[in-house]
Amino acid sequence: MKKLRKTAAASADPDAAAPTALSAAQGSSWTHGRSLAQRAVTGLLYVGIACGVLALGMQLLPPPAKPAAAVLTADGGLTVVQQQAGAYATGFVGAWLSATRQQPGTLLDYIDESSTSMLSESPWDYRDLGIVSIDPVDETGVVSVVVAANIEEYDMTSDKGLTFWPRRYFSVPVRIADAGLAVVALPTPLAAPVRDATNVQLSYTKTVSPNRSARTTVEAFLAAYLAGSGDITRVISPGSTISAVLPAPYQELKVTDIRSDREASDTPAGGDVVHVFATADVTSASGQRLTTTYALTLTARDGRWETTTVDLAPQESSTGATSTTKSTPTPTPSR
């Protein structure tokens, strides 16, 4: 059974997730941080003796201006190394689940062999390993990474010994230091995120009937976008970077419902904007079916509607104004 699948955020393969370029930093007594620290102290002692005279002479010179430290950051406010800690924790959880007492495997890349006596005689089968969240812990240099995976377990309510694959969540503290990354503790099982039971109220209150021009635009756009039917450049706004999904994942597409946040005129003035929420049934070449939804922004030009953006999320009625919805263009070559 294949135990691991790649996620969009990072590779969850425990054989590849422990980066060789990042040595383990200080951690608990069962991590590799302590042995590295001892070697580092010895090396620094010799370097310090050799540089003593030079350092004394440098005190007579005016100190140079110290440049500000450059910290690479990424979307969401996390530094690059904090995001690397997320991938590191994901690899650790995968190695922890798949390790056995006789074959600890890549778990030894994260913890000392003395800790493997706690391991199971057989591995845990898992799939769909991925990062849920990465949260820095104050100013400690530690990030708390939550990792989730579907794990095969026996159904205790079944008399037939059936198994199922519930989604399980684990918290992993990872210390970030100049020497590299180190796990501070073993994975901690957590409860799943709580679902908000309140009903979501969207702001799309107007029905766009089949004979309206806005609906024709949406149908043509989705057909080109998802099913490779037609030229998508004919139904998107000039300058839009939306491109069709390639290769087309679906053979057939049928739009079943479209709603808008205001009336979409059949003769709109140039620059008019309307937000729509479309529901469509899609069918693959093998006959598999799904129902999907799209939040889109349409802009009028030369008396017709064109698709400008695929919105990041549909508009909720409680958010108020409808013209400030954030949207994103589809990455090229496919979304």
Automatic annotation (TrEMBL):
One Pfam family from the record: TpcC
Composition bias type Low complexity, residue spans: 317-329
This protein's UniProt keywords: Membrane, Transmembrane, Transmembrane helix
Region Disordered, residue ranges: 309-335
Transmembrane segments: 43-61
InterPro entries membership: TcpC (IPR024735)
Protein name: Conjugal transfer protein
